[in-house]
Amino acid sequence: MLRTIGLMSGTSLDGVDAAWVETDGEAIGRIGPTLTLPYEPALRRDLRRLLDLAGDIAADDPFLADCVRRLTERHAEAVERLRAEAARALGEDADLIGFHGQTILHRPAPPGERRPGRTWQVGDAAWLARQAGLPVAHDFRSADVAAGGQGAPLVPVVHAALAASLPRPLAVLNLGGVGNVTWIGPGEAGHGRLIAFDTGPANGPLDDWARTHAQTDYDRDGLLALAGQPDGAVLGRLMAHPWLAAPPPKSLDRLDFDRALKEAGAGALSPPDGAATLVAFAAVCVAAASRHLPEPPLQWLVAGGGRRNPAMMKALAAALEQPVRPVEVAGWNGDALEAQAFGVLAARVLRGLPITFPGTTGAPEPLTGGRIARPVG
Ligand SMILES: Nc1ncnc2c1ncn2[C@@H]1O[C@H](COP(=O)(O)OP(=O)(O)OP(=O)(O)O)[C@@H](O)[C@H]1O
Ligand SMILES: CC(=O)N[C@H]1[C@@H]2OC[C@@H](O2)[C@@H](O)[C@@H]1O[C@H](C)C(=O)O
C-alpha cells in the first residue's frame, strides 16, 4: 500500500483540506490525520475574482500566476504540517501526493455533443513535487473531458470503496459549493453499479448571498436562512430550470446558476428570505436528482460543509423521502472525505487504474487520467 496525502481545494474557496490515507487505489488501509488550512481573506477574494476572469484570462497572466503561487504555497504548507502530524501520530511519512488544485473554470461539452469541452484546475504540481520531494498526481479531470466526459464527479469510486460493507442502495451526497450525489447499487460493489452526477448549486450561491447581505463568508449554522421563509415564486422559477430535469451525466461550474438566480428575482428578496430560498433550492435540486436514480436509496449520507448547516439539513429532510444523515454515522469524516479521496485517486493514477466511468462522468468507457509530476534531482 502507498502512504498518500490527498489535497482538495473545493469550489467554496475556503481553504485546503488535507488527509493522510494508506491505499493501493482500491482498498483503503489506515486512515491517518486530516487538517484544513483556511485561506486568508485576500487569497479567498482573489480566487473568487479569478473564477469571474477565468473564461478570458491568458495562461501567462500575472494575476493568475500570483494566485497560483499563493495557492500552491498554502498546499505545500498543508503537506508539511500533515507530514509532521503523521510522523507524530503514526510514525509514518508519505509516498505520494494527490493534488486536485483549484477549479477556476469547468465547461465540459454537453453530453452527446462532440465539440471539445474545457476544465481548468490551477496549481503548480511540479513546484509542489520539488518542494515536498514526492511524486504529485494532478490534472485529474482533463483526460475525461477530452474524451467527452463531464470531468466530474471523481470521488464516487472512493465512496464505493468506503461503502463496501454498508447496506445498499445507498446515496452519498456531498454539499460543497456545488452538490453531487453518488448512488451505489445493491449486490456486488463494482463500478458498473455506480451512478453519480452533480445535483445543482449547494452552498456556493448561499455563500455569495451571505457575503453581500450579511458581510460574512457563509451563513454560519444557517442562522440567516432559519430566520427567513423561502419565496415560492422565486423557487418555482428556479425549479423550472431545464438542468434539473436533464438526466445524468451532468456537472456544473461554480457560477453556472448565477444568471438563473438573478433572472428568477432572488436578488430582490430580504437577506433572510433570500438565504432561505437558496437553501430550499439546494434541497429541491437534490430531490430532483433523486428522480434520476435507478432505485430509491435506503438512506442519504451527507458529507461536505452543507451538513453543518441545520437549515440545509432540515430542508433536505423535508425534500427527500428517505432518512438523511451526516456521513459520520458510517464512521466517515465528512470534512476530509474529498481530500481522502484524492489520496486514493492519486494511487489509482500512479497504478494506471481507471478514475472515471460511464456511470460517473459519462466517459465512453472506464478511463485512466491524471498526470504525475516527479521531484527532480
Ligand atoms: N457551521 C456551518 N454552518 C453553515 N454552513 C457551513 C458551516 N460550515 C461549513 N459550511 C458551508 O460549507 C461550505 C464549505 O463546504 P466544503 O468545504 O464541503 O466545500 P468545498 O469542498 O469547497 O466545495 P466542493 O465540494 O463543491 O468542491 C462553506 O462555504 C459553507 O457554506
Ligand atoms: C469541476 C469541479 O471541480 N467539480 C467539483 C465541484 O465540487 C463538487 C462538485 O462540483 C463535484 O463535481 C466536483 O468535486 C468533487 C470533488 C468530485 O469531483 O467528486
UniProtKB/TrEMBL annotation:
It is an enzyme of class 2 (transferase). Keywords: ATP-binding, Carbohydrate metabolism, Kinase, Nucleotide-binding, Transferase. Its EC number is 2.7.1.170. The gene is anmK. The keyword Transferase applies. ATP binds at G10, T11, S12, L13, D14, G15, V16, D17. It catalyses: 1,6-anhydro-N-acetyl-beta-muramate + ATP + H2O = N-acetyl-D-muramate 6-phosphate + ADP + H(+). It holds the Pfam family AnmK. This is Anhydro-N-acetylmuramic acid kinase. Belongs to the anhydro-N-acetylmuramic acid kinase family. GO terms for biological process: 1,6-anhydro-N-acetyl-beta-muramic acid catabolic process; amino sugar metabolic process; peptidoglycan turnover. Gene3D superfamilies: 3.30.420.40. The keyword Nucleotide-binding applies. HAMAP family: AnhMurNAc_kinase. Pathway: Amino-sugar metabolism; 1,6-anhydro-N-acetylmuramate degradation; Cell wall biogenesis; peptidoglycan recycling. InterPro entries: Anhydro_N_Ac-Mur_kinase, ATPase_NBD. GO terms for molecular function: ATP binding; kinase activity; phosphotransferase activity, alcohol group as acceptor. It comes from Roseicella aerolata. Catalyzes the specific phosphorylation of 1,6-anhydro-N-acetylmuramic acid (anhMurNAc) with the simultaneous cleavage of the 1,6-anhydro ring, generating MurNAc-6-P. Is required for the utilization of anhMurNAc either imported from the medium or derived from its own cell wall murein, and thus plays a role in cell wall recycling.
